[in-house]
Amino acid sequence: MEAGVLALQGGFREHxxxxxxxxxNCREVKLPNDFDGLDCLVVPGGESTTIxxxxxxxxxxxxxxxxxxxxxxxxxxxxGAIFLSKLRGFNQPVLRLIDIEIKRNxxxxxxxxxxxxxxxTLPRTSxxxxxxGGGDTGVFPGVFIRAPRVVEAGPSVxxxxxxxxxxxxxxRQKNLLVTVFHPELTDDHRFHxxxxxxxxx
Length: 201
Hints:
Low-confidence stretches: 127-134
Mean pLDDT: 89
Order of helices and strands: EHEEHHEHEEEEEEEEH
């Protein structure tokens, strides 16, 4: 398993640390040739406008779209979720890969960041990590920092996490996973285990 984390800006180091701790080979992705031999990709949180602009500048839009089109797992957290989704109300580079419409900074500014329990349903996956990741229903400690809001999810999108208010905060469509919170900022690695388990044997 060769995992990659887009390392243009934001909290990529935390993802790299957790994925390596879970036993995956993991490397930072900054240029198109960094996709060679990669099995899965994490697009981390940060500043979505900056991530989009740098992805355009470094010629990464087409490689990411092609990578996802090969049915390889791609996970976006917070700003990464914005980058993978359809964006409402802002004009910035996004990939529109997953059938989710999202609104950025919808929960407020940095000072309005909060923690909340996420009710999760993680189906068991079939990959190498299936014994530890997935098959879990329970509460996940959600860390929300300038979090976006899922405004609409298409019929082919599976909801994996909600707040007590019913708001969608984690979802999957085929090989694409998004969380509007930051699992990498907690000691709970279930979402990382689930993501690694999305890779077939």
